[in-house]
Fold this sequence. Notes:
By secondary structure, the protein is an alpha+beta fold. The chain contains 53 helices and 28 strands. It has a five-stranded mixed β-sheet with strand order 2-1-5-3-4, covered by helices on one side. Strand 24 and strand 25 form a beta hairpin. The protein starts with a helix and ends in a 26-residue tail after the last helix.
Amino acid sequence: MKDKVKRGGRNQAKTDMITLTGGKGAVGRKQEEDTSFLVKIQGAGVEPFELPIHGFWLVQDAVMALLSREEVCPRSSLSLALAGTTLDPLAELQSLKGLKPGSILRLVEEPYTSRSARIHLGRVLELLRASGPQDALKEGRSPSILETLTHTHTPDSGLTNGKSLKRSSSNTKTEPTNQDGAPPEYLLPGSAERPLMVLLPHSSQPEVPSCLRDVSLSCWNPPPGHRKLQGDFLYITVVTVEGRRCEITSCPRGFYLNRSTEEVFDPRPAQSSPVCHCFTDLLCHISPNFKQSLTTLKNSRSQLPPAEVMPTPYRTLSWLGPSCASRTHKNSFSRLGLDEPAATQAPDWNEELQAARDLPQGSLEERLQRDRSLLQVNSAFVWAVGQGAETVIDGFVDPVNGNLEDPAFLWGGLFMSQGAASAALGGERGRRQLIVRTSQCADNLNGSSYSTCRAAQRLELRGVQAYSDLEGALQGLHTLPTATVDYRGVRLSAQGLAPGLEGSEQDQDSSAPSRGLLYGVNAGPQESPQRRRLLELLAQSAKALALQRHAVMAPNSHQVPLFTSVDAQGLLGADGRYYLLDLFRSLPADANYCPEVQTEGKESPGEEEGKDGREEEGEKTSCVKEEGWPENYRSDSGLPKSFPHGLCRLRPELLQAFIQHKHSQFTQRVRERMEENGGFEECATACDSRGTDAVRAACKDVGSVSDIIFEMRFNPNIFSTGVSFPSGDSEKTKLQERLLREAAAFIITQQIPAFVEYCLQGSEAPMDGASLKQALHQRGINLRYLGHVIKAISQSEHRERLRHITRLVIAEIVIRSTRRIFNSFLQGVEVPSLSAAVSHFLCCLLVPHFSPTPVGEESKKKSRRRGRGAGASDSTPWSTLTGAELWNLVCQDAVETYDISDSLGSGPNHLVEHYGLQKLSLLREFCLKTGVQLRLRDYFLDNQSKAPIGSDDILNIFPVVKHIHMPTSDASKAFRAAQNSIQKGLLDQAHECLKEAAYLFGRVCDDLHPEACHCLSLLAKVAFLQGQAAEARSVQLKAVVISERVLGFDHPNTIQQYALLAVYAYAGGENVLAQKCLLRARLLMLTVHGEDHPYTATLDSCLGLVLAGEQAEQYLKNALRLNVSFFGPRDLHTALTQHLLSQCMCSKGDYRSAMNHEKEALAAFTLMFGEDHPQTRCSTEFLRTITQQAVRVERSLRQAGADCTEQTVECLTPGTDTLLEQMVLVTGIRKNTQSDRLQEFKQKLMEQRAAEAREEANKVTDEPAASETEKGGEPSSDKETGCGKEVEDGGSPAEKNAKESQDDQPVEETAVESAAITPANGHVVEPAEQNPNEEKTAVDRGDSEHSGTPASDAELKVTVNGEAEVKCAGEETETHTANEEESRTDEGGKESEETVNEMKRSDEVNGDMNGVLDMTADPLELKSKEALADVVVSKAIIANQTGDRDTAVNGVAEGSVTVNGIAEE
Length: 1465
């Protein structure tokens, strides 16, 4: 933990020193007193240098920044002095007198203590253990491969902010633009070869030099008593590279060479031996080779970019290891004993986490420090969990309870237990830890309990995550640090030790209520201020999590009110914090998999009533079960049904989507009721009971828990086994059962079809199991619905276009079923046979009809070769497993879990033949999910005569840890603000927000975070669209490195980042680098998924642009084949590829083929965009040029004769700018707008404004109208819409023209209505009550002085899919100043002419980025009935005196009306 925090401190200092010039937005958000300046550092034997510091830093922060510098590393125990006075570590720099820019701060060497001396030695070892190119693979971490493509060694080529990669723009530009050789055969279209050796090429970086042969604790340790009294801490033995053996003493002044030898103890200082404060200074004095190697090591570290050097917060598993593991193993100097902390130094993980949570959050700097501290503590906790799992399961720790049937372990401050399940997962539970019972051997577990125990641990983690994400006052509700880890087939649950919660029942009964159990079914009746405070926190958290307050029957037949699941317990620890434990049932149950408990919750606790209920169950089950299910739902879906475990819960993403869906129904119901009661407008304006009655009726129809406002909440105990509710709450229970059935049916009827439609839309569909899981979870679909996804695809008319999704789903089902079998398989394997057993299992999985090799001579050969006996392989049960038996087990598990019958066939070859599945992809997915690491070599998995994977190919099994994700609140908010600006087309504003977000991510996590990678990628895209290709390239280089290290070197996101980097490199003239990046992306794509994927067509199209000759044509034809098969002949992707192929044919002189391809492209463009679209006109012009060129060439050939044919053929070769623009379109950086009405609208707008300008030039604007306009009043007639009003308003587009052209716009009324309710953070926001004048005033009150369009207008965004969104145009930008507003007002009618040009530029630059067209229209004309319904709903709420003007949908008044009580930012 301490080492990790120390490394985090170094990273913090680095990120504090970087971007002094970048991240201006973040600097602007800091407090005014926060300043930064440079000071000079001298002393302590280091070369003088300048250090950037911040005024708000403490002195100890500056010291930590110094310790991270290469000039100072690995020195420690230093302090700072100013003008001869040592500075207080806790003093603020800005409070020091005499400290100013350019001041000299001297480093002062402080005396060591025994602990600080060990810390210093640890820093030295960290430096000497510097990771080489192969060390990341050896440690199971994903490496960065980008440097093998760029081949840079320049020491200082970073940007001024210091955070970008230190690669100059000219490093690869000097390479020849023409390629020396063609792409390798395995990367050509149609190749079936899948080599692995090229995935991880040898690094271009030099190997880390060996500085020492060995360093260890001396045999004379510990120092004798008389030497302790003289200050000796340690005796260290060092063996230099020259072979010299030295004995070194550690003392308070530093380190010196003593006279001891292996045989004689003589602690006196050696002759001419100095006392060095830094251990490396003494080693440099002893060994010249060490001095030279240390200099080389430091220089190599300084040349590497920070993103490649800094340790990642969490391990990203690499499923491939070194090709020769023995040669890469190095001396880690572990005999120094610093890696073995004493048991008394075990960290208190809970205290560290809660102390970080309790840090202040008043200012931006405080929030950044808090987020960084949380990330550091959680990162160190996760690393400790992984190490603890290996230690525990390898057998180095004994159970603390001594019971093998209920094992629990204490190690390194962690409480670890094996996951298990009791019969009902309820009843009496430990107050400290979710401990579920199991047997250590999986052979004694039935499938149900084994699945239930793992589900309980997974859901416990999800519940902890839900309560950890609560903000504000709810952060007073604490949860223990929690993680789950899978290692060698065993899952462990790990938690920190909570203080004061492990007391006995007698102690807690006799103690005051201020300590112990305060909340829960078994808490009993009690009253205290602490309990009231805890209940207040639980009530607020229930509102935030959409949980309903309810009552259950306790075992003593008393009613117990609850805000959580029945298992949860609330406690007050000895540290004064409130803790919530046992959260595995925090989310509502999935009614699709709860058929056996559907009516249990309604029965009262009385025994007679239970009997009556069972007698009448047969009569009322049929009607009760149907309530909430759609018609024919059971027959169509086969649900509800049982599941292998009884803990099926809904995902929080599904609850948000379901609430949004119910809110849309609610608004529709209100509108329908008002239409029935006298008309919509009449009910909207009248203040009678009709609006209230409509709201009440709509609340009842949609299932709102309130009858006066829309409020959706869920009872987490519905459908839970063993839970009884009071008989008086039967109506509420029925309502909750209905809601959960509707939510469960919502997955089948809405979410799964939406996922299928998403996969049909674009080329960035899921590529592997991880991206498939992410796409499903984003829509709230649990992976247990994979079988239903297969069924939905098979019933779709586009199932052939979805074959890549079918392939992924089938592979995910196979691998998940295989993993469950593998976990049980490993429990019967002894440790010496693990590698052989794993390789045998993989051969059974991948080779059809694989049978084990007879034991006999093969075992004898192996025993003779390895120098040991055959071991247990002669009689172990695992060696008798065959491929057919394993496949039968996999199919059986898939049928029970995912309800698929004949989809898997008889073996892996069936998957290859019917689904195009790659065995290599299966192997990769299996290794990533189980932690198995394979040796890097080429595997031939179709070999039937020989086992393709041997025991020597299994290098390691790493723990796979699932943990809590810590927030990066300010950085994430800035990133979301940038995304919103991009959707509006405001690239300048988005660029600033992205810079700010990148700065904040660097401050919190050193950019080593998945969201930071996405932020940098988007920043590069925006910079490129603004014409800053060099900045885009620099930022994208960093994004690629982060993606490789944080997500994985072969992650789908890494593939996309390489493709984007190729575009930016090509824009800078680096053709060779662009080609390398695209070939690298294609290699990863072939390994991860195969060639049959839409994104392969994107990569092939780009390769066809950067290559030349036959290779370009080959890639383009393959891209055309893929696009036609996935999108059809009349899709945009296909049309673009047809155009590129036509262009390629022209470059080689084949004009006949070029005309055929361009005709297909023109037909598609005309069908999609219309004849007036720029893309259509461009295609028409190009076709005309081709035809003319073909005629010209034919004429010249006839005139010159047959002998001169080769010399007279003229070819049309596109320019570099044309190719770049086409790459931008192909990769989706800029998208074509799919509207054929834009040019028509622009023309009408220009004509209308010209007519108005002529009319206004001949008349004088009335003064009353002008004064009314200045007050922000609403125009009352058409005569106020001329240039006179435009001058006063800041320029209003012609409302009359908008009204006349409204019918011409490709927007229907329903699309406008749907935009009246806009999503905010996953919820739907209902507008508050407004009258027309107030609505107009609210628009005018926007940031109109900063807007390029009038504030009195609304902007209608028409997207590609025909959806519409209404937003205030005054909210678009914040770039103009007050002076610019005045000048714009003085220009009068001149602005009306410039608006059209601005629209053209917006269409070309901003709108093309996300395929959005911006069209202005009058807000009064855009007002829909649905929007009026929202107004009436708000009026009804106020009429019933149930809320204020801004009453929230779930009863929270936060200044805006929101769904489910979550206020919009």
